[in-house]
Write the structure tokens for this entry.
Amino acid sequence: MTRAATLLAVFAAFAAVTTGADKNSNLDANCSPAYLAQTKSCLDSYFSGFGLNPANLPPYKDYVNIIVDLTTHFGANGADIYCSGLGPVDWSSFLVTVAMALEVTVKNCLGPLFNSPCMTGAAFQDMYGMDLTNAYEYATDFPVRAYMCDNKQFMEDNLACFDSIITSHMDERRKCTDTVETAIKNVSDGDYCKPWGPFVQCMDDVYVKYCGQQVKGYICNVLEVGINFDSMNACKDTLPKCG
């Protein structure tokens, strides 16, 4: 696996960790039909840039594989292209267009809508007719990848260690995700925020164990970006404070 493919695979691994939370299938009233249509127009352009048909998007895991495959095509420049459109690229040789650059297309197109109720899982379900799990996986993917792109140099500096966790210690990581999913299913008092604090701590412990204390704040922030997005910041005050 090339460095670019590994980087995007790590992106994908983090982007999907927050699925399984209590999900509200009702579209937030603050996302008006006009704003939802504008959001879908921007996202349709982004997905089309990967050669996808917005009217029939694939399951989230297949979408992730497409990102990894396309980025790998551009070798060492792949992650830069995805995050900011940097690097010399012969776009004519591939199906993708500059829409592949998350930072310079989707965020610029959406503006303040990028961090709005129009980008929630419920909104994705409304726009694309997905089942709720895939809708939340797609929705959470955007803010998590945006954060990781904003901190791409840190990710690259620690890439070898992050990759080793995915390839050699996935069982420890999976224990964290399995535990939080079970805890969420067993919530009886309506407090779906409670399981996420221990989850963040569990994942922090795994990454610090193999990568050192310097990754603690980063891992915490990546996870909490996704959790806060999924919960519309309802869980923000109950989560650990990231360094």
